[in-house]
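Annex B.
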Amino acid sequence: MAVKEEFRCSQFDFCSAFRSHICDSFQDAKDCYSTFVDYFAQCLRRDDIDKRPTAAGYRVILPGSLSDTFLFEQYKAGKYVPRTALIHFSDRFDKKDILHAKLILLPVHHKGHWTVYCVNLVHEQIDILDSSPWPTEKQQKEYHADIAERIRSRLNNALHQYTHGKFTDFSKWGFAFVPVPKQALPNDGGFFSMMFLEHYDGKKRKMDINIDPLLGSQIRAQILYYMLFHKINRERPLPHEIEHLAPPPEPP
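Ubiquitin-like protease family profile domain-containing protein: predicted structure tokens.
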């Protein structure tokens, strides 16, 4: 893929992705790097502020790297340290945005698969958006039983600490598996999770667009296009053979 060695964004967080990471993540049958899930979330946050002010006050999209912190013991020896989670909030979110939100969305990576956990304050439950076509309901529940309690407890505690106890206590809320489109390709979970972050209507508990699972490769291409040409990508202009594909400038 003819792109620069690296693209970076300057808003909210610093993200860096090398050309090899792009190739590794966006080919069919490849798992998506967490860098791209986090960067996509940053693009959505900027678009919410610039284009969707009602969404900006309605939902908060947390970085996928926060789930790595919550599930620390899965990857490294040692204990979870609660204060490490607060770092993900202090540099990214205003406390008022957290307190006013009706949806708190967290992309979660576990055992090579991406899902989205949504603290749904409209329905007072935790929605699980999982694109994997599990053979049985039992297998799906077993997969999430390994992580759901920790995510609920640790996210609840982190939000309480960050807002000085003002955020709604959801430590006893139930989990609900929301019917969502199921991926056709084995490693499309990251890209379906990105679509869920963008299009989940928590009030109606469904997507606000139709997502065709058979178009997994097209979804990957659309997401890459969106991220490459987003205003927060600092590595512009891109090489000519790619830059000429850019969308027309937005009106002031």
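Confidence is low (pLDDT under 50) at residues 1-14. The chain has one domain: 6-243. Further annotation is deferred to the next reporting cycle.
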